[in-house]
Fold:
Amino acid sequence: MSGAGSNGSGSHRAQVLDGTATAKAIKGELAERVAALAARGVVPGLGTALVGDDPGSQAYVRGKHRDCAEVGIASIRVDLPATASQADIEAAVAQLNADPACTGFIVQLPLPKGVDTNRVLELLDPAKDADGLHPTNLGRLVLRVNGPIDSPLPCTPRGILELLVRHGIELAGKDVVVVGRGTTVGRTIGLLLTRREFNATVTLTHTGTEDLAEHTRHADVIVAAAGVAGIITADLVKPGAIVLDVGVTRVVDADTGKVRLAGDVDSGVAEVAGWLSPNPGGVGPMTRAMLLANVVEAAERALPALT
Ligand SMILES: Nc1nc(=O)c2c([nH]1)NC[C@@H]1CN(c3ccc(C(=O)N[C@@H](CCC(=O)O)C(=O)O)cc3)C=[N+]21
Structure:
């Protein structure tokens, strides 16, 4: 093996966890499964409920529908104005729950201030929950000790696991430090990785952690999902560690004055880590691929059994 150890000349570069290429391979596989469904008269359909005009959220939703077109999944869009009320949003969820063309859907987060997000998520039909964020599905994530994935998992945690598996990386017995405790990434990947089939040892750190470096410096794997640009600097990383850059923050570039997206991982980490997921091009494309997988699997589960 070369690449994973320092060569002493200071020119070490971490190996790349290539999310773009991996997501492309997964989309190819999903296109075949979509074709098999079509042969049985079923066209999977992804619904999105988008509230307001945040440019970031609009871009994400556009990207999701573009991905759908690539693999043959139908698109159903429900767009509501920023002024939509709780009742309007709940009505959009009810509409997607009832639409037979929609086999899976997401409510794009975050919802506008004042909206009760948990109440909206509770209303999704768990069988159509493409984000795996309905309490029933989060409960299944916790309860399932072993066995096949038969309920949707949240897209980013699933994407991270898939990215590692497809690069031949095993987590069993490893020390994983997760930075960030959000529902969509940090807390859920922590719960998932402690399940017997993954068998990792997990430390879940967050903004209240007194000495973050003390934890990360001993980690075999760091999942950086704090949403704080550049929080993981090279001195926080054990040489050879596996580092996943999940965070996305909009920052104003000091030199150009332009807004750009910044990850949680500082560029210097590439000199220390053994493996690193680029950002962009790492976890983001995998998240989108797993959304497609969740939609295809929901349609597969809904098929009548072959006799
Ligand atoms: N209900 C819900 N489900 C989500 O899955 C969800 C959400 N709400 N709200 C926002 C976050 C964010 N998120 C991203 C997905 C893909 C990229 C992605 O593909 N990024 C590209 C770069 C894209 C660019 O340059 O703008 C990359 O990393 O290579 C990024 C961010 C999903 N989210």
User: Anything to note?
Assistant: Residues 187 and 290 are 18 Å apart (CA to CA). Residues 59-60, 106-109, 131, 155, 248, 261, 279-281, 284-285, 287-288 surround 5,10-Methenyltetrahydrofolate (CB under 6 Å). The longest strand covers residues 45-51. DSSP finds nine helices and eleven strands in the chain.
